[in-house]
Amino acid sequence: MACQRGALIVLEGVDRAGKTTQCKMLVQALQKSGRPAEAMRFPDRTTTIGQLISAYLEKKSELEDHTVHLLFSANRWELVPTMKKKLEQGITLVVDRYAFSGAAFTSAKPGFSLEWCMKPDVGLPKPDLVMFLQLSPAEAALRGQFGVERYETRVFQNAVQQKFELLMKDSSVNWQVQDGLGCRVSPFIVSFKARRKN
Ligand code: NYM
């Protein structure tokens, strides 16, 4: 019997919105319900490209803005064969950030259109569900470690939030907005099952 393809679930939001915690909880809940599930995150800082990105985010190196945008995208593309393989094996992938972060963060910089920013990621595996954890940049700033990495200023995060709001107008993407303050995983699964298309 052919196994059912896994689902591709993406969590997005401004920095410190709680995506990493929610990803972990969601993977655990899916596994507990008997569905094979694994977590992934972008940037994946373990690859050669990911290490260049990590040094940039940690302010240990400088990269030209277009260049780092394309590196973020290349970091997703290099993981596509692995993602496809796992999805075909029936493993559900819960991904902490994806191309939406790529477009929202770079287009928050001066001189970058959303349209240009989205182009390098055209053709990536399409998520079955994108959950946006809604948390005001002011709330996010109160959470631990805010301000350590590049982009972690309230002004920049406000600009990123506005770009995410534009991205969420795309009805071809299965967006679901969740309250980032005190949201729980179980409603995620219910709505994921209800709205899953494949
Ligand atoms: N980021 C993340 C981008 O600017 N472009 C991208 O394509 C992606 C995936 O990197 N500030 C930014 C968002 C975050 C940072 O942080 C990664 P973290 O804590 O590893 O999710």
Automatic annotation (TrEMBL):
Pfam families for this protein: Thymidylate_kin (PF02223)
- Could you tell me one molecular function GO term of this UniProt entry? ATP binding
A biological process from GO: dTDP biosynthetic process
| Gene3D superfamilies (alphabetical) | P-loop containing nucleotide triphosphate hydrolases
The keyword Transferase appears for this protein: yes
Q: Which CDD domains match?
A: TMPK (cd01672)
Q: What is this protein called?
A: Thymidylate kinase
Species in which this protein is naturally found: Oryzias latipes (Japanese rice fish)
